[in-house]
Amino acid sequence: MQVRSYLKLSVVVALATIALKTGAWWVSGSVSLLSDALESLVNLAGAVFALAMVTIAERPPDDDHPYGHHKAEYFSSGFEGVLIFIAALAIVWAAVQRLLHPQPLDAVGLGIALSVFSSVLNGALAWAMLKKARSHRSMALEADARHLFTDVWTSAGVVVGLFAVMATGWLWLDPVVAIGVALNILREGASLVWRSTEGLMDRAVEADVRAEIDRTLDGFRHHAIRFDHVVTRRAGQRRFVDLHMHMPAAWTLGRAAAVRASVEQALMSAVPGLRASIQLLPMDVEAHFDDLQDPM
């Protein structure tokens, strides 16, 4: 399955879990189950937005976006993080109201059963999505998968809290668990927003990718060839590397270009999705663009 297919499946599962968790809240009256249902609404909105952003990210480069549209995936992650914050505030508001006005719970066993079933669906989908996200380096898919995992842990906490309410009869435990759910998803929301911001600021490639780039360049280094000013960045699923390759000034342009082509091909074979830009320079010439400072 492709990334978009997983996100479409995520939309379908989100609709199913909303129905299950809303039913769980309806039959039991539990505010912690209501908080779980609200988070599923965020899952749905996040999956729909992620699907839209992945569709945009797959567009080919054009005159206005010569490097492609890959960063659109980071908007998906940030949007989902903001939705999580909103859901957390709604959960806290509902929980405080229930703390001030306690109400007895009904049909808790049925509510728990519906919640557990929906969590099984979310957990299975999240595991498959995270595995796919890592192989395709999709930020949007990873964000959606991690949010689903958060939803699973949220549901687990709610179920434990409801069992505690049934065992002790302490109705105040229900809204307290709901507040705990809100704090947990706030943490996940902050993580998603931070990662989205980092991606939009042209963060360097991952350590393992950089190591693979260095190993590939080492295979071409000798007394007549050296590399410097190696700079990397990532944009969604795409990776970029810019560098200088120094060669003897006596080499013909054709010979130098042939070696550069070999290095570019080796880099792109070693790191799928990598785009390499190599500037050729004579061995005795240095570039000092790093010494320049941007005007304030």
Q: For the report, how would you describe the main beta sheet? A: 3 strands, mixed
Strands of the biggest beta sheet: in what spatial order?
1-2-3
* Superfamily (CATH H level) name of the largest domain: Cation efflux protein transmembrane domain
Along the chain, the helix and strand elements come as: HHHHHHHEEHE
Assembly classification: single chain
**What number is the mean pLDDT?**
79
CATH topology of the largest domain: Alpha-lytic protease prodomain-like
Q: Write down the domain tally.
A: 2
How much strand? 5-15%
Helix/strand structural class: mainly alpha
Poorly predicted segments: none
**CATH class annotation of the largest domain:** Mainly Alpha
Described by the principal axes of the CA atoms, the overall outline is elongated
Rg computed from alpha carbons, rounded to a whole number of angstroms: 26 Å
Helical fraction: 55-70%
- Second-tier CATH architecture of the largest domain: Up-down Bundle
| Strand segment tally | 3
Amino- and carboxy-terminal Cα gap: 49 Å
- How many DSSP helices? 8
Keywords:
296 residues; mainly alpha; Alpha-lytic protease prodomain-like; Alpha-Beta Plaits; 2 domains; 3-stranded mixed β-sheet; 10% strand
